[in-house]
Amino acid sequence: MEGEVISKNFIEQIIDKDLEEGTYNKVVTRFPPEPNGYLHIGHAKSILLNSGLAKEYGGKFNLRFDDTNPTKEKTEYVESILEDVKWLGADFGVDYYYASDYFDAMYESAVKLIKKGKAYVCDLTADEIREYRGTLKEPGKESPYRNRSIEENLDLFERMKNGEFEDGSKVLRAKIDMASPNINMRDPVIYRIARMTHHNTGDKWCIYPMYDFAHPIEDAVEGVTHSICTLEFEDHRPLYDWVVRELEFEYPPKQIEFAKLYLQNVITGKRYIKKLVEDGVVDGWDDPRLVTISALRRKGVTPESIRMFMELSGVSKANSTSDMAMLEYCIREDLKMKARRMMAVIDPIKLVIDNYPEDQTELLEIENNQENEELGSRKVSFSRELYIEREDFMEVPPKKYFRLFPGNEVRLKNAYFVTCTDFVKDENGNVTEVHCTYDPATKSGSGFEGRKVKGTIHWVDAGTAVDATVRLYENLISEGDEVLKEDYSNLNPNSLVEMKNCKLEAAFSDVEPGERFQFLRHGYFCIDSKDSTKEHPVFNRIVSLKSSYRPKKD
Ligand code: ATP
Ligand code: MG
Question: What span, in angstroms and rounded, lies between the C-alpha atoms of 323 and 142?
Fold first, then answer.
């Protein structure tokens, strides 16, 4: 198109060509999760890619549960997947599908192959089939059952379906080429006998189709045009093509592979996440330390920032790893203008302003977000006793410490200048209280320009403070390590730090679940959807304010 400036990814280029050449006259994509666990950030990539393409080309995006293997699948997973896909904003229309809805079509397809002489019932054991298959260097050997007549195959397959044979005693195989350099093409098994109760079809079937046979049929039945999957299926594509060709679909779908999303030093992969959940290393699938979609949601990450991250990380044919810092950058970018900025003291000590009248409270008008006027302002109470962060006072300051220490003057954010005069310690030598005096002339917004101070600290009025718990998260794997050891010996002891005695501005007494905030100097936070109560709010840190990631300049 003329004037086109945005470069298209390789999948868009394929689609453009297909539409131009009339291979397809529309675009239908799908996301086919197996409901055997919760979705993670890698799946989000696939969801947003597929639904995004459908939207871009005015096509359709299907959500289909790939439930052809009954052993590991659960309704709990189906429900969580539905919630996650909706939350990401992927539009799958009014309905979603189950691969198991097509078991009849798959059975009919198998019969069709048999009738064409392209499939046969084989009595070799699983071990024998493996042995006959050959290796990358050696061709396979033909099964002695390969040349059964069509009639015999039709009869045996029907009896397989009717439950006349033991589990595993027979299989149906595609008749392709035992000498193919691609092992997937050496007469792959397409149906097996297994007496399993299916979550959707119950005990109706005792034969189940294999993935490589079922998947192309599912796609074709739904009218999918571009069946986008990850690179590990590249070697399966010839079989995919064989199935849709032999079954003579009018508009055979096309498989396209792209590279999975990997995050550096972060545990992705359903299997690995499941193990952490089962071993109790984390507190369920939505523990905010995980990168499941439900964990990211619970932590407070926005779908917008996940979308931005996927756009930045791109779609590629070559494997690479992305950096968590890039997702964190996207979260900050997304929340920068949206979030109210408020004061919260996470590790409090008292600050007493000795020369401030004891019975006085001022209400200071404070902007909610200096960069976004639309968020308005709020009134924050200020009085003689405040809370400040423990680390904002030092008895003996190191060089370049500009916060409170005896004799030093700092600015209390949005309020007055105060000068530290004294402090109190408990019997263990811990500072429990800091004393200071304030200068009434220095009120923020009063135009005072008499003195400059180098340090500004935040504070919360003690009289009206809200008590809260704040959870601070770090990566599960200790810094410097790439993978979590089998014995969990390099689990980061600080992956979750729970601060139970936090003091927040009174404005936090009635926050809505789901609202995100910036706690000044601390980062972005969100109410925990599980453990927070009206009486005692619990906040999760979504991301700190510090950034090590800078996007590349174009
Ligand atoms: P995992 O690799 O975590 O075990 P999976 O591939 O077994 O996941 P499925 O439910 O089979 O999980 O995947 C559904 C879809 O999501 C597939 O099309 C798969 O290719 C895609 N997908 C899975 N992981 C990633 C990832 N890291 N990046 C992009 N797409 C992914
Ligand atoms: Mg899988």
Answer: 48
